[in-house]
Amino acid sequence: MSRLRNKGWVLPVSIVLAFLLALVPLPDLLLPLRPYWLALVLAYWVIETPERAGLGFAFCIGLLADVLTGGILGEQALRLVVMAFILQRFRARIRFFPLSQQALSIGGLLFNDRVIDAAIHLLGDAPLLPWSYWWAPLLGMALWLPLYVLLDAVRLGKRGR
Question: Which of 1, 6, 98, 137 could bond to 110 as cystine, CB 3.0-4.6 Å?
Fold first, then answer.
């Protein structure tokens, strides 16, 4: 148990890295395909350590993400809180799925996130999102397995042999 307590730095570092990946400039062609790194990292922490990452945590990092990216204040906070709520509700089931089924669940959540984002844009009279915007949840779903394995290895202190 003390081994897990000594790894308290992993959560904040993973969130900071997710912020940095969200801020990395991409060419216009690849911009709509950018995975929602913050949601993927948050999903991992809500599933694995719900006592450390809950709705309040999701709201705070969402507000910080809105400030860092210059978006509508509260947009990402709402999106991340909805994702965290659904994950908390179904955590017991999702946690024990094989990683391939977890990836499908995460893909569904990322697609739901895109629907919420599109609705916010529609209500805010923002320009319609391009069709390529809908490919990002598939990319996020494909990235779930390596991200989960990496974060799990760092959090638990596993070494590759």
Answer: 137
